[in-house]
Amino acid sequence: MLSMMFMCLIASAQMVGGFQQGNDGHIYFVANNQTGATFNIQIVAASTDRNNSETKTMTPNGGFYLGPTTPWRWYWKRGDKISVVYANGQSQTWVC
Q1: How far is it, in rounded angstroms, from Cα 1 to Cα 36?
Q2: Contacting residues for 14 by C-beta, under 8 A, at least 6 apart
């Protein structure tokens, strides 16, 4: 479903993610749990025109993606940010 990588991956973290262009031409954010552990995260997205957040439980080797065809109906554009916040308060942030 997803073809082109827009941002480099972040290593040395529980989640690895980046922005990708889907076959439909839209940009999606895709992240995967690179550990064998189950843990909770908060996903926080911010744009000049809207914000959204959600709490998810990541299963071993599970993940999530967000874009215009997902419940958030997020059309990513340059400058949009998404953060994954872990239970210990540490976070990772990606910028489109």
Answers
A1: 24
A2: 33, 34, 35, 37, 39, 58, 86
**Which among 39, 47, 51 is positioned nearest to 79, based on CA atoms?**
47
To the question of pTM greater than 0.85 for the whole model, the response is no
Per-residue pLDDT of 67-95, as tens digits, reads: 999 999 999 999 999 999 999 999 999 99
**Dist. CA 38–CA 18, nearest whole Å:** 21
Go through the domains of the chain in sequence order and give each one's CATH number.
Answer: 2-95 (2.60.40)
Show the tokens assigned to 28: 């999606």
DSSP codes joined into one string, 17-41: EEEEEETTS-EEEEEEE-SS--EEE
Cα 33–chain centre separation: 11
